[in-house]
Every structure is written in C-alpha cells, then in structure tokens.
C-alpha cells in the first residue's frame, strides 16, 4: 500500500523550482521508506539493497539487507563505496564499505503506472565514483521530462569489489574469488525486480545502461546467468567487452597486493582497515589497477589487463566466446552499443598535445607504431591527416591524434563486437558513434587534467542526463539540441525495446549522433581494417 503525505512539512527547505517539497512514504519488501515529492518528481535515496559488506561479509557475495520496523529515511544519498581519488598511491581514501544503496526518481508511486525502468550503472574504471555523482547520474529533471523510473546504485569497487585471491575462495559456495562488484549489480537488479512496481515501474520493462566501466558492467550482465531475466534491454556506453583475465591468473598477479597487506589468510584480510586495503593496492607496479596508458597509442606487447575476470560463475566466459559456443544463461535482449569519436580526448596523455607541430605528431605516432613493424606508421598517418577539416584549426593535430587512439582503443574493436552481437542475438542490435563537438572546452570532472575539445568520453552520457552545462559552464542552442536528441532516442529505446525507424539496426548502418541523426554504412571501415589487419584489437580498452 502506498501512502503519500500530502502536506507541507514545516522547517524543511527542500525546493524544486518554485514548488515546496512534501514527504512521501512507500511500502517496499523490507519496510516503509520515506522520500521527497518535489514538483512532479518523487525521489528516494539511500535505500539498502544488501547488508553492509563489512567484517566477515567483506569479499563475500552480497547478503539480503536486514529489514526495519520503523520508517526508513530515504531523503539523502548514502556514502559512496570505499575508493581513492585520484587512482595512485597518493590518492585520498574516501567513502565507506557500508555503501550498497539504491536511489530512485519517479513521477508516480502508483503500482499500476507500469512506467519503463532505466537502471544506471556508473563508471570509474571499476575503481571509483558512485551512483550519486553530481552531473553523472539520473536527476529529477530527467525523471520529469522522460516517461521512465530512473534508478542508480553503488557497488563495491577496486580491491573490495574485484580482488581475486585463492585464499578468498575459502568458504565460498562457488569456490571462486573476485567480481564481487558484479555480484552487487545482480543484487541491485534483483531489488529492482522485487520493488520497482511500488515506484510506478514495470519490472518487465527494465533497461540497464552504463558508461565506461558501467558499460563494461553491462557486458558482464549480458553474459551472466545470474542476471538473466532481471533486465530486458541494454545500453553499453563506451564500455569494454574485453574479459581476458582468468581467475587463476588474476589470483597469481594479485599476490603483489597480498604482500603489501602482510596477511597470510582471509581472516587477517577481513580485519584490516579500509585505508590499509586501499593503501595495499599496487597502483604504480600493476597497470591493471592504475589505468595507465589507456589514452595513448599502444606499443607492441604492452597489454593492459582487465580487473574484471572470467570466474566461471558470474562471468562464465568472455562475451564473444559465450555467443560463439552458445553457452547457456546469456541475455538475448535488444542491445545498443555506443562510443564517441574522440573517446580519449577526455584525458589526452600529453600536457602539450594542443601545441604539437606536424613533426611532433608524426614523431609520437612513429615511436609507438614502429614497434609493430611493416608499413603501419605510414598507413596510419595517411588515414589520419592533420589537414582534415576541424572546427578549431589550431587543434587539428589534437583531433587527429585522439581520433586515431580512440579508433584503436575503442571505436574499431567495438564495431567488431557489435557485429558479433548482431550475428549472435535474435534481438535487435544498434550501434552509434557520437560526432558532436560541444560549443567550448569541457571539464566534465575535476579529476581530469585538461579540458576536452571534441567528442570526448562521457559526452553522450552528459547529454542524456542534461548536465552538459556543468562541464561547459554555459550551453548553446546546439548543445541543448544534442541533449534533447540523446534523451529522445534512449528514452524511446527504454520504452519500446527498439529504436525509431530513422535509426537502422547494425551492421546495416551506424547511427552518427550530433544535433541530428545520420546513418552511414561501413563507418570508418578503412581505418578499422588497418588496425584489425595489424592485430591491434588486442589493445582495446579494458574495464
């Protein structure tokens, strides 16, 4: 039963526009929760979907939450999961292990509303951020202007969420270790299935979507038997389909972490402080954890392994292998696979990239690609000329370089896996590339060293959430048109399970998203053939 308290609450200054907020109570499976009703939108924040994974529950599958008898205050976000920012040995520890909470925004708490549901999985290299990052998650504005229930949540990160060690298998009913963060995501989706009707949502019309490592998480959910039936559409935004690390290999590699802790058994590890765990992660010595070189051209043999692993339980095998061998338990649902044209422009590897000369550009490309031999360097420079038109003539070299790296690391490998998805799933598969160039320098996060100038990693996400103004300072009419376009297509997909007729399925065409949608056949086929023929897809982004 839903009870809405339709009175103004004296002393509360919760405002949305010109409308004062009231309180709203909803009865869910574990008890009554109290959120806010501001204008047209109800929001409920900090609802536990699992017990705190602390003490003996550290490095265990998530456990059902302890229910409550009184009304639970769901007005403020709860803590982010334990993490360091930035990702280095000098990063600042923040957050808490008590962090497994879900947040909901909706325009209705009538269980008969049957609104589509969109569940956001945040990014952050599986190491950082949260479901409540300002500008990087659902908002009341999104809920008000989109006919859907919007959900976000936290999941365990870094060593707490993805540490694989043989001694952590002790007591595990599945004899596995690692991927605890993915188990949290499954638990959150189970919570949605059980409770979302109380927030006006349709439990049979759930879309999962995530950006960066949130997109990687979407791939994990797509192939995980544990998640089958918990969602009905999926959107990968600049994630990775690379799951090449086995549990055995990861357990051996992670002995470097164990050495730092001084522990020899799981009991000792579970007694360590949060800060000690974070300090023991070998950020500098183990690039899988440090996210190094992801925005740089690869050098032969220098591979960056994933933190997420194939454990045979949550992730039974890499996605392409799951489909090829028709392994049981994967989700055959409508699937959107997206990237931006200059993904790596969000964190270019060189401070002076914008000041490079033509000679600098050619030298940097040569230093990296000459390690592969043959004519790769010559062919690459031919396909990525700095003379190609760009809206900022003094930054054409930056555009050429970040486009090249983005093609190697993300765009072209993603074309291949999208084609495999289209050939393996009976459900429709769609592919998009964002080509829109925002009106000015964008600073989407204070964690990023330089402003972005082109179609950077995260541009589509900020567009959908309607928060480009936070990155740009001010927005132009074109910026706002791009935001409306992102919302239009994503919300249509969530509601209908397909894109409108002007967006063809893949591999027929790729949708190019700017202030309008255009569709192109064989998009970037020459560039992608070069990288594929030279074995470069093994250097695709991880995590």
Automatic annotation (TrEMBL):
Source organism of this protein record: Xenopus tropicalis (Western clawed frog)
InterPro entries according to UniProt: AB_hydrolase_fold, CarbesteraseB, Carboxylesterase_B_AS, Type-B_Carboxylest/Lipase
Family label: Belongs to the type-B carboxylesterase/lipase family.
SUPFAM superfamilies: alpha/beta-Hydrolases
UniProt EC number: 3.1.1.-
Keyword annotations from UniProtKB, A to Z: Hydrolase, Signal
Highest taxon of source: Eukaryota
Phylogenetic placement of the source organism: Eukaryota, Metazoa, Chordata, Craniata, Vertebrata
A GO term for molecular function: hydrolase activity
Carboxylesterase type B domain: residues covered: 26-531
Signal peptide feature range: 1-20
Protein name as it appears in the record: Carboxylic ester hydrolase
């Amino acid at each position: 039963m839903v009870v809405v308290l339709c009175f103004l609450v004296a002393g509360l200054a919760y405002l949305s526009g010109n409308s004062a907020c009231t309180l709203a109570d909803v009865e869910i499976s574990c008890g009554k929760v109290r959120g806010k009703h501001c204008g047209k939108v109800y929001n409920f924040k900090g609802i536990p979907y699992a017990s705190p994974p602390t003490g003996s529950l550290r490095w265990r599958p998530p456990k059902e939450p302890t229910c409550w008898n009184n009304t639970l205050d769901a007005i403020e976000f709860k803590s982010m999961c334990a993490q360091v920012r930035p990702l280095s040995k000098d990063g600042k520890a923040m957050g808490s292990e008590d962090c497994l909470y879900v947040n909901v925004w909706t325009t209705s708490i009538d269980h008969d509303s049957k609104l589509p549901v969109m569940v956001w999985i945040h990014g952050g290299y599986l190491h950082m951020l949260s479901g409540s990052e300002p500008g990087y998650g659902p908002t009341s504005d999104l809920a008000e202007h989109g006919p859907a229930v919007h959900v976000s949540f936290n999941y365990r990160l870094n060593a707490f969420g993805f540490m694989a060690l043989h001694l952590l298998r002790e007591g595990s009913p599945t004899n596995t270790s690692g991927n605890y963060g993915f188990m949290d995501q499954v638990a959150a989706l189970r919570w949605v299935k059980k409770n979302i009707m109380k927030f006006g949502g349709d439990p049979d019309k759930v879309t999962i979507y995530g950006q960066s490592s949130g997109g990687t998480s979407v791939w994990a959910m797509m192939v995980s038997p544990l998640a089958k039936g918990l969602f009905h559409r999926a959107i990968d935004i600049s994630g990775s389909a690379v799951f090449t690390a086995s549990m055995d290999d990861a357990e051996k590699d992670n002995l470097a972490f164990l050495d730092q802790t001084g522990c020899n058994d799981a009991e000792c590890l579970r007694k360590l402080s949060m800060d000690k765990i974070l300090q023991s992660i070998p950020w500098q010595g183990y690039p899988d954890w440090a996210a190094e070189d992801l925005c740089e051209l690869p050098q032969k043999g220098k591979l960056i392994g994933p933190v997420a692993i194939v454990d045979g339980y949550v992730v039974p095998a890499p996605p392409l292998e799951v489909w090829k061998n028709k392994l049981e338990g994967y989700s055959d649902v409508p699937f959107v696979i997206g990237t931006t044209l200059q993904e790596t422009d969000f964190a270019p590897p060189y401070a002076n990239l914008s000041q490079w000369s033509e000679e600098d550009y050619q030298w940097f490309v040569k230093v990296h690609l000459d390690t592969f031999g043959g004519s790769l360097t010559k062919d690459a420079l031919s396909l990525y000329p700095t003379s190609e038109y760009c809206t900022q003539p003094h930054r054409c070299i930056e555009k050429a370089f970040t486009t090249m790296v983005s093609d190697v690391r993300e765009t072209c490998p993603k074309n291949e896996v999208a084609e495999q998805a289209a050939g393996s799933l009976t459900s429709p598969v769609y592919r998009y590339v964002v080509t829109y160039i925002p009106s000015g320098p964008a600073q989407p996060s204070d964690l990023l060293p330089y402003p972005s100038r082109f179609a950077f990693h995260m541009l589509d996400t900020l567009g959908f959430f309607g928060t480009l103004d936070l990155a740009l300072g001010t927005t132009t009419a074109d910026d706002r048109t791009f935001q409306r376009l992102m919302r239009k297509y994503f919300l249509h997909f969530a509601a209908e399970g397909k894109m409108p007729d002007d967006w063809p399925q893949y591999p027929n065409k790729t949708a190019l998203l700017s202030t309008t949608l255009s569709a192109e056949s064989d998009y970037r086929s020459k560039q992608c053939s070069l990288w594929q023929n030279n074995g470069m897809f093994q250097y695709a982004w991880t995590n």
